[in-house]
Amino acid sequence: MQGAIFDPSQVIFRDGVDTDIPYCLALDGDFQSEHVWQMTVHEVSDEVQVSCRKQRLPRRLDSRHVTDPRLLELTLRRKHCFVVVQDKSTNHILGYISMRVDEPSQVAYLQNIVIDRPYRRRSLGSRLVHVARVWASEYHLRQILFEIPTTNYPCILFSKALGFSFCGFNDHHFANREIALFFSLSV
Questions:
Q1: pTM for this one?
Q2: DSSP states of 25-74 as a string?
Q3: Fewer beta carbons below 10 Å: N end or C end of the chain?
Q4: Which residue in 77, 117, 72, 78 sits closest to 97, CA to CA?
């Protein structure tokens, strides 16, 4: 169902509620990638060198975006962000974004951004990030930190296109023990 038809004037962005969670979890967040970021850490004496390199895969990688429902429920709390994009004419949820906030550091951690496959490449993801950035500004946060698996090269390109900058990584960050790349965006 690639390229589903919808009327952009009927799209709304609103705060997510608990009844939205099952619909968000049912969205097709799968992605394909022909590249990954390969991380190499070399430690010698008092020096640590980290190398990040785009690596072409021998064949296309089909991956699944997995959202932890418990973590998504936590974003329903005050001072956390859960925004859905919905088609008013059909009431279908087309995508969502979720961020948790670390108040002492004034940083929002962007954990999930999912646009249902038929509605991708229509600026909905960019618009969700814009809404999240406005939200972060209203809460006087200073930065959004985007957590992206090294295998999600399309999301890496997406984040860079929106002005996010690479700022670090963490081995075994995700539940599946995959490496997380961190990209930051000033609010």
A1: 0.88
A2: HTS---EEEEEEEEEEEEEETTEEEEEEEEEEEEEEEEE-----HHHHHH
A3: N
A4: 72
Cα end-to-end distance, the chain, whole Å: 36
73: Cβ–Cβ under 8 A, 6 or more apart, which residues?
18, 21
| Proportion of the chain above pLDDT 90, given as a percent | 63
* Local confidence band at 59 (pLDDT 50, 70, 90 cut-offs): very high
CATH topology (fold) of 8-186: Aminopeptidase (3.40.630)
Per-position DSSP letters for 100-152, written without gaps between them: EEETTTTEEEEEEEEE-GGG-SSSHHHHHHHHHHHHHHHTT--EEEEEEETT-
